[in-house]
Amino acid sequence: MIDRASVEAVLNAILDPETGQGLIDAGVPRGLTVAEDRAGFVIEVPANRTAAYAPVRDAAEAALKSMPGMARVSVVMTAETAPAGRKASLSPAAVEQTRARAPVPTDRPAHVRRVLAVASGKGGVGKSTVAVNLAAALARRGLSVGILDADVYGPSLPTMLGLSGQPAYEDGAIVPHVAHGLKAMSVGLLTKSDDAMIWRGPMASQAITQMLTQTRWGTADAPLDILVVDLPPGTGDVQLTLIQKTPLDGAVIVSTPQEVALADARRAHTLFQRVKVPTLGLIENMSGDVFGRGGGEAEAGRLSIPYLGDLPLDAALREGGDAGVPLVISDPEGEIAGRFGRFAGQITAKFFP
Fold first, then answer.
1. N or C: fewer beta carbons within 10 Å in the chain?
2. What is the pTM of this model?
3. Over the stretch 233-272, which tens digit does the pLDDT of each residue have?
């Protein structure tokens, strides 16, 4: 088992180039987290010192990985700003985790007309698959659409859209990747694919806020019509921060038909009610013989929210996500794409009557 003292000893054997002290003595590691077989921390540096600290990050990562029993290491270096064309990274604000802060109200992201949250109370119900295909269906209606992967602990957007490589900074803004006509941003594009995000709630919330507000989603001449935000499951820190900091125009809840998932969907709707975000509807995913059917429609009736429709358990829908091409894109005339088209039509009618 890895203990904190041994991790600190290993890190203190590496010298800080600024002070000449060991990293621990110099206070370089931020948010050091040590578990049974893993460790991680963040190095915060000014943008003009990233080159000097890159070898420090690599040395720290290698030293930790060499410790007996160490299974996973995450050492992330962040910079406050980056010059045009350089790779983007999360700023020090994104990794502040010394204490929780009350959310500070902010405006909606610049040049974004509507913000739509796709949520579920429970993980494993296919929420991200629905979010990506719904975004693609909205784009097929001629709208300018972006999608933000707000699940910092399990980002899936890079895989589902076939994206890789860090985005660039231009004029102080993150330039999102574009895939299948969608502007896309995810913490998974800022870290290695096998990194474990060992972040506490405030740290994750700040990262999401930065990606939301500092990404160039649209311009004055070409605003983004809809930004789809794929929320992580649950009703915790990230959800509360996003909802309280950003004016959401509506939310769609995804659930499978069985009661264990519907109970969590009920909690998600209650959260949106309390913060006065309208629930635009519920989608029943994986509907059919395995999970049953009709539970989503009945729950929508009990909650007095629109029932947008159901999606059958379909292997092609999963295969599209694994291949990086949403089924709405690869089979636009198919039955599943038609259902997503109807969902998109109902949302569009509410956002742009």
1. C
2. 0.69
3. 776 666 776 776 678 899 999 998 888 788 888 888 988 8
Q: How far is the C-alpha of 146 from the C-alpha of 280, rounded, in Å? A: 19
Cα distance between residue 263 and residue 299, in whole Å: 9
Note whether 119 and 267 are within 8 A (CB).
no
User: pLDDT of 78-90, one tens digit each?
Assistant: 654 444 444 444 4
CA nearest to 276, candidates 232, 244, 241, 230:
244
Neighbouring CB atoms inside 10 A of 235's CB total 19
3-state secondary structure 152-219: CCCCCHHHHHCCCCCCEEECCEECCEEECCEEEEEHHHCCCCCCCCCCCHHHHHHHHHHHHHHECCCC
- Tell me the one-letter amino acid at 11: L
Q: In what order do the strands lie in the sheet with 38-45?
A: 29-34, 38-45, 72-79
> CA 178 from chain center: how many Å?
16
**Distance in angstroms (rounded) separating the CA atoms of residues 223 and 263:** 37
Render pLDDT for 163-206 as a digit per residue (tens, 0 to 9): 988 888 788 788 999 999 999 998 888 765 555 454 555 566 66
Least Cα distance to 64 among 25, 13, 18 occurs for 13
Pull the structure tokens for residue 298: 């009945």
At which residue do the structure tokens 């660039």 appear? Answer: 168
